[in-house]
Amino acid sequence: MITNEQVISIGRITRTHGKRGEIQCLTSNEYWDNANATFLILCIDNILVPFRVLDWRGKGSDSLIFQLDRITDEQSAQPLIGCQAYMLTSDLSEEDEVLPTWQSLMGYRVLDTDQGELGTIIHVDESTINTLITLDNEQLIPLHEDFILNIEPDKQLLTICLPFLFTKE
Known about the structure:
This protein is mainly β. The protein has helices spanning 31-34, 74-77; strands spanning 7-17, 22-27, 39-44, 47-59, 63-68, 84-88, 109-112, 116-125, 132-135, 140-142, 148-152, 157-160.
């Protein structure tokens, strides 16, 4: 099973492309361009699912077109629209510096300075300009650098301060 620690986000699937099952990925970095990767990892129902890449090509400065194994027509490609796309960090080229991403916070416990422990991050939604995290208790929290006080990877702990959202009862 592929874990969040083994992947790095490269973008999001935005649409199908053509009739042969190709998909278009809006990229957020150039990791894929510089790598020698053979698998595209898609997050489907919060599970990281690998797809063997049969072919890929760039489209403009910020999109990639992928032809994936077992995705042979537009109908089979349609459910992949909206999925976050990842690649294995082991496939990164040596010169690529891996910067932490919001996705790397999956599984972290969230501690608020006023409310204490809020829960564990089970989903990170970057599909809009406002990044949201979903906790295991189904609570949604906006995620922004200004809210983060400390990140402790060894403890998988994210300490935040959201005084405007949470009031003591």
